[in-house]
C-alpha cells in the first residue's frame, strides 16, 4: 500500500447518470443562480442604503443576505461550467478550499438564525433593555464564541479530510467538494472523519436549533401571557421560523441521504445536497422581502426609483 500514491486531482461526476441530458441542468441552476445573486444584492443594497433599516434586526438580515450571496459563488460557477463544457476536474487543494468555505458559510447560515432569535428575544421579552443588550460591545459575547466555534470545527473537519490518502478512486459522485463525498474515496480508515463530521453537525446546526427553539418557546410564552399587545411583534419571528424550518428540512434530508442510502437514486441524493446550500440562498431574500413590511416598502421604492431613472435616461 505504501507504493500507491495518493490522488491529487479529482473528477466531480455528479448527475453523470443523466448522460446526454446532463447539460440541460445548466438552465434551472443558472436561473436559480441569477435569482440568488439578484435578490440578495437587492436586499443588501436596500438595507445598506436606507438609514431607517440600520437597526440590529435588519443588519442581521443583511448579514444573512451576505452569506447567501457568497455561498453559491464558491461552487455554482464551477458546477455550471461542468454542465455546459464538461469541465469536471478539481485539484485536492482546490477541493479542500472549496469545502472549507462552503461548510463555513453554511455554518453561519445556522448561526445567523440563532443571532436573529436572540435579537427577537431581547426585543420582545426585554424591550426596556433591548438597545443596551444589542449594542455591539454587549452583543459581541454572543458573536465571538460562535464565530470561533464555526471556524474551529470546520477547519478541523477539512484538515482531517486533507490528511487522508486517496489511493483507489478519484471520481467523486457529486457536483462540488462535499465532506462525505471526498472522505468516502479514502483508502484508509475514515472512522475519525465520520465522528468529527457528526460532532460538527451536533455542535453547530443541532446546538443552534436547540437554542433557537428554546428562545422562541420563551418568546411565544411571553407574548401569550401579555395579550394582544405582543402579537404584532411575532410577525418577524414567524418569518425567521419559516426560513429556519425550510433550511433545516433540506439540511437534514441531505445529511441523512448520505448515511441512510436505502436504494435512494444517486441523482436525487446529489440534488438534495446541492439544494441544501443553494435553495436557502434563493428562498431567504424572497421571504424576508415579502414578509418584512419595512424591507418590502423600501424595495418597492428602490425599484420605482430605478424605473424612473431609466425612463428619464431613455427620454
Q: Topology of this protein?
A:
Layout: E1 9-12, H1 26-49, H2 56-70, H3 76-85, E2 89-91, H4 92-125, H5 130-133, H6 136-162, E3 171-172, H7 179-183, H8 191-226, H9 234-259, H10 266-291, H11 293-314
Parallel strand pairs: 1-3
Antiparallel strand pairs: 1-2
Helix pairs in contact: 1-2, 1-3, 1-10, 1-11, 2-4, 2-10, 4-6, 4-8, 4-9, 6-8, 9-10, 10-11
Q: What does this entry look like structurally?
A:
The chain has 315 residues and is mainly α. The protein is built from eleven helices and three strands. Helix 6 runs antiparallel to helix 8 and helix 10 crosses helix 11. 35% of the residues are buried.
| Through-space gap between termini | 74 Å
Portion of residues in beta strands equals under 5%
Give the class from helix and strand content and strand pairing: mainly alpha
Average residue pLDDT: 84
Quick one: overall form? globular
Query: How are the strands ordered across the major sheet?
Result: 2-1-3
Main β-sheet description: 3 strands, mixed
In total, the number of strands is 3
Secondary-structure element pattern, one letter each: EHHHEHHHEHHHHH
Oligomer: single chain
Number of H/I helices:
11
Amino acid at each position: 500500500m505504501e507504493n500507491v500514491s495518493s490522488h491529487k486531482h479529482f473528477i466531480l461526476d455528479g448527475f453523470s447518470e443523466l448522460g446526454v441530458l446532463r447539460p440541460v441542468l445548466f438552465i434551472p441552476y443558472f436561473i436559480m443562480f441569477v435569482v440568488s445573486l439578484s435578490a440578495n444584492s437587492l436586499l443588501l443594497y436596500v438595507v445598506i442604503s436606507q438609514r431607517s433599516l440600520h437597526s440590529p434586526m435588519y443588519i442581521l438580515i443583511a448579514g444573512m443576505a451576505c452569506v447567501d450571496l457568497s455561498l453559491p459563488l464558491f461552487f455554482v460557477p464551477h458546477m455550471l461550467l461542468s454542465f455546459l463544457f464538461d469541465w469536471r476536474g478539481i485539484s485536492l487543494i482546490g477541493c479542500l478550499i472549496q469545502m472549507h468555505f462552503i461548510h463555513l458559510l453554511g455554518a453561519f447560515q445556522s448561526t445567523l438564525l440563532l443571532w436573529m432569535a436572540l435579537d427577537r428575544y431581547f426585543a420582545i421579552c426585554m424591550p426596556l433593555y433591548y438597545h443596551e443588550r444589542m449594542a455591539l460591545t454587549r452583543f459581541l459575547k454572543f458573536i465571538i464564541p460562535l464565530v470561533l466555534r464555526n471556524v474551529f470545527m470546520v477547519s478541523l473537519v477539512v484538515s482531517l479530510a486533507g490528511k487522508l490518502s486517496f489511493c483507489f478512486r478519484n471520481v467523486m459522485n457529486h457536483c462540488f467538494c462535499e465532506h462525505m463525498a471526498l472522505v468516502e474515496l479514502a483508502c484508509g480508515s475514515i472512522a475519525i472523519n465520520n465522528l468529527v463530521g457528526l460532532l460538527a453537525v451536533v455542535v453547530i446546526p443541532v446546538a443552534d436549533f436547540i437554542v433557537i427553539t428554546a428562545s422562541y418557546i420563551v418568546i411565544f410564552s411571553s407574548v401569550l401571557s401579555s395579550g394582544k399587545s405582543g402579537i404584532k411583534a411575532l410577525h418577524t419571528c414567524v418569518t425567521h421560523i419559516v426560513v429556519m424550518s425550510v433550511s433545516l428540512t433540506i439540511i437534514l434530508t441531505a445529511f441523512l441521504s448520505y448515511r441512510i442510502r436505502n436504494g435512494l437514486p444517486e441523482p436525487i441524493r446529489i440534488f438534495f445536497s446541492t439544494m441544501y446550500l443553494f435553495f436557502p440562498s434563493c428562498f431567504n431574500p424572497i421571504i424576508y422581502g415579502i414578509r418584512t413590511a419595512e424591507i418590502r416598502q423600501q424595495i418597492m421604492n428602490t425599484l420605482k426609483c430605478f424605473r424612473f431613472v431609466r425612463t428619464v435616461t431613455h427620454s
